[in-house]
């Protein structure tokens, strides 16, 4: 690997570790929110939380059910993000060692593709399963098919097959030498 490629791989690896750490913090906050709401369902804020941007108003209903929904959605998002970041970190580490066409990387790319499929499924299913008080929080959410994550998953599945073929060609080349 070239010096620039090695440097970029190390930079990516460091950024991925930071993102994993922030994802872990988000998951801990969601778990603490779930436990707190279960133990203290009557503890509510004095006023409903409301933030207004230029055109979007985000309001927070003052119910335990809504808080639990937000915490569960947050925990689910952190789980999906970790599901993509952990294999991506391992993929980056194998690139740093100079072995990007390892058989393990094929499975890692497939796991990342599955995370994108979960995002697409969540865009369809989440609005349908949210309790009614929490629906106000996700007021812009409505069931729809998002082609972005589906296209990303398709590209990653194809890339996984390219990596699998690269592994096979490397093994064939090593066997003939």
Could you characterize what this model shows?
The chain has 177 residues and is mainly α. 74% of the residues lie in helices and 5% in strands. The protein is built from five helices and two strands, in the order H-E-E-H-H-H-H. Strands 1-2 form a two-stranded antiparallel ribbon. Strand 1 and strand 2 form a beta hairpin. The longest helix has 37 residues. The radius of gyration is 21 Å and the shape is elongated.
Observed structural traits:
mainly alpha; two-stranded antiparallel sheet
* Assembly classification: single chain
Net shape: elongated
Radius of gyration: 21 Å
The SSE string, one letter per element, is HEEHHHH
Set out the fold topology.
Elements (H helix, E strand, L loop, with lengths): L2 H37 L9 E4 L4 E4 L3 H33 L6 H27 L2 H4 L11 H30 L1
Antiparallel strand pairs: 1-2
Helix pairs in contact: 1-2, 2-3, 3-5
Give the gist of this structure.
With 177 residues, the chain is mostly helical. The chain has helices at 3-39, 64-96, 103-129, 132-135, 147-176; strands at 49-52, 57-60. A two-stranded antiparallel sheet has the order 1-2.
